[in-house]
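To: structure desk
From: M.T.
Subject: fold request, one chain
Message: Could you run this one when you get a chance? Sequence is below, nothing fancy, just the single chain.
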Amino acid sequence: MAFEKGTAKLARAKAMEWVNNQMPKYSNYLSCGLPEYDDRLDSWRVPLIFAGANSELLGEVKFSKDLSRTIETTKTSIILNRIEKLRHLMPEEKPKSSSKNSFTPTPVPNKVIWGDSIKVLEDFPRDSAQLVFTSPPYYNAKPEYSEYVDYQEYLDFLRKVFVRCHQVLSEGRFCVINISPVLIKRVSRNASSKRVAIPFDIHKIMESIGFDFIDDIIWVKPEGAGWNLGRGRRFKADRQPLQYKPVPVTEYVLVYRKRTDKLIDWNIRSHDPALVEESKVLGEYDVTNIWRIHPSTNKKHPASFPDELARRVIRYYSFIDDLVLDPFAGSGTVGKVALEMNRRFLLIDREYEYFQLMKDMISQIAPDNIRIDYDIYEDEME
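Reply: Done. Structure tokens follow.
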């Protein structure tokens, strides 16, 4: 349906007029979203959103077709309650600057660090990293990882690490996590195995820290890739209902963005135009969230992910010369691929064996003109 030019603008003005009349003391906490015309009800709907950093929906005002009268609104008491929960997020007013916004990352060279990520990242300033890509350690899935008193301690540990990642990650940039449910094998014939849904608990943690959920990419491995877990063999033998358990051949690649009121376009516009142009994704690319990639094996690390997985994540979520952080670096795949793709890297692992593994591997492939720092965090030497 066609409307006169400026009708949407007028709908916004009418909505703010309603706000100023109903809750004048709180009007600075509200702004109007995009007005929409509802053909079914012949009415205009104007969303009311929080004017702070997260632009959360607070309510809605509905007007007649000609905007002459208010038809329906969200109760003011509900809007006020929602504002009270969010008002602490309202940014302090800053003087306006006439200069154009531009992004200047903190200059951090390529680093491989032996240390605890929670402690190490405390020493890095904001804007150190422009992409976080990692695969957290398993929860008690294998003997070498059975170090947590219980599952909650494991989640608390991950939360502390991702809080540090959030602090050093540049505004509006991405944190990508490769994670999957973990199968805890049964300890006796009278006990059952248990599958722990880690990705769903990770999601709660990430949102509470200050990340917005963007995508869930499904990494699909060839059929039979998970048969060694033993899952599904009993059903194959006797086909009894209730005993069906499919063999897992997928993992999640969860994509989050550091919460900001700025659109992704801002990240692109404020970046170096030459690097943006040079980083364009040319040729074929993944058009769905299903990525079919063969798994990798590493005799010196029990849970390495394939180069191709790192290659796609770095290609889609970073610019050339960005710094890619992996706080659980393991065998160093992220650093290896970042180097190949003209990105910088920050690799951290608390196991000295993996630090040495990464040091040996990176030293062999790094060009002579690329600076690589191999650091031992001072606390580890105590």
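Reply (cont.): Residues 133 and 313 are 8 Å apart (CA to CA). Let me know if you need anything else for the meeting.
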